[in-house]
Write a structure and sequence with these properties.
This protein has helices at residues 3-14, 34-47, 64-77, 98-106, 135-144, 164-179, 193-201, 212-216, 240-250, 268-271, 286-296, 303-315, and strands spanning 18-22, 25-29, 50-53, 85-91, 110-115, 147-150, 185-187, 206-210, 257-259, 323-327, 331-332, 336-339, 342-345, 352-353, 356-361. By secondary structure, it is an alpha/beta fold. The structure holds N-carbamoyl-L-aspartate and zinc ion.
């Protein structure tokens, strides 16, 4: 080896790997309210410039007024100096009217509407019982260019929990895509290879979000050494082949795949319980996890598309101006976040993570 080559190799080894991208957005976040909101918001606001805020509060955010006042509560809970922008959503029910949907959209209160099949997940009992009957609302959304965000799981308790996403896609999503060819549809937190194929085949008007945890765990991880309640979420993680398909899709650079953490905090007592609540608090380690996956897949050059470009383009809004730098420098994730007398366990909390968050330029 010549001295020149040696020198080049040494420089490469000593310079930390880092990547600077436009500031990212999170297209699927549960911020909750009150003390929980104050505890978890700083983590999302530190990582992301904007986020789509899920409306599954108790009671759910079904009106323009409720969304506007929730937005105010989020803004007043922000850390001093934060420029984070919450993007609100409307919780669709059997009683949502096309006029209310359009009013909230025109007034700039909400960006999208969330479709929970009734009973599919946490605080979804007020959701939609008959998607076909929602046609007038979806037609109006199609006309005004507002996206619908879909929790894609069938609710029939007879259907095996690992098959509920696939069952929903066949019975509900495909008919909906056919009925509303101009409606922009985001399949939330995709977990199967088949969902990825469906989204790809309808990429002119469909997209999906992919969470950090579904890129890292499979259904076996939930049972590793015992039952791990903090890895239980909905849709539940699937087999390894699905995780591999999600990793390929997220890192493909294709415009229909976007970042959405589905960070869903529950107090420790609600997770380590006789009946564990569904949801993983991934908000504090999201970017570190995603960038690690892109690094492992040899796709760091495509990270910006997934994290910062695809979502904004799909929703027809400008991409962010500022930048964030991620550095391949080990950091240890915070184990848990205090909320009043309790805490919320952080996804990958307490573990050494190979990547850290570096400089953020607004
Ligand atoms: C979410 C929650 O806790 O609000 N839970 C989850 O497991 N992801 C709801 C949801 O997005 O399904
Ligand atoms: Zn969610």
């Amino acid at each position: 080896m010549s001295t020149d080559t040696l020198f080049a190799a040494e420089t490469a080894a000593s310079a930390p790997v880092e990547i600077t991208i436009r500031r990212p957005d999170d297209w699927h976040v549960h911020l909750r309210d009150g003390a929980m909101l104050r505890a978890v918001l700083p983590f999302t606001a530190n990582q992301f410039k904007r986020a789509i805020i899920m409306p599954n509060l108790v009671p759910p955010v079904t009106s323009v007024e409720a969304a506007a006042s929730y937005r105010e509560r989020i803004l007043s809970a922000l850390p001093e100096g934060s420029d984070f922008e919450p993007m609100m959503t409307c919780y669709l029910t059997d009683h949502t009217t096309p006029d209310e949907i359009e009013r909230g959209y025109r007034e700039g209160v909400w960006r999208a509407a969330k479709l929970y099949p009734a009973g599919a997940t946490t605080n979804s009992h007020a959701g939609v019982t008959d998607i076909a009957a929602l046609a007038p609302v979806l037609e109006r959304m199609e006309r005004i260019g507002m996206a619908v965000l879909v929790h894609g799981e069938a609710t029939d308790p007879e259907i095996d929990i690992f098959d509920r996403e696939a069952a929903f896609m066949e019975a509900s999503l495909l008919p909906m895509l056919r009925r509303h060819e101009g409606l922009r549809v985001v399949v939330e937190h995709a977990t199967t290879a088949e969902t990825i194929d469906i989204v790809r085949a309808h990429a002119s008007h469909a997209a999906c979000t992919i969470t950090p945890h579904h890129l890292v765990i499979n259904r076996t991880t939930i049972f590793q050494g015992g039952l791990r309640p903090h890895l239980y979420c909905l849709p539940v993680a699937k087999r390894e082949r699905h995780r591999q398909a999600l990793r390929k899709a997220a890192t493909s650079g294709e415009g229909c795949f976007m970042l959405g953490t589905d960070t869903a905090p529950h107090r420790r007592g609600a997770k380590q319980a006789e009946c564990c609540s569904a949801g993983i608090f991934g908000g504090a380690t999201a970017l570190q996890t995603y960038v690690q996956v892109f690094d492992e897949e040899g796709a760091l050059d495509r990270f910006e598309a997934f994290a910062s470009l695809n979502g904004a383009r799909f929703h027809g809004i400008p991409v962010n101006e500022g930048t964030i730098t991620l550095v391949k420098k080990p950091s240890t994730a915070l184990a848990a976040v205090s909320v009043e007398e309790e805490d919320v366990v952080v996804f990958r909390g307490g573990e050494p993570l190979p990547w850290s968050i570096g400089e953020i330029r607004p």
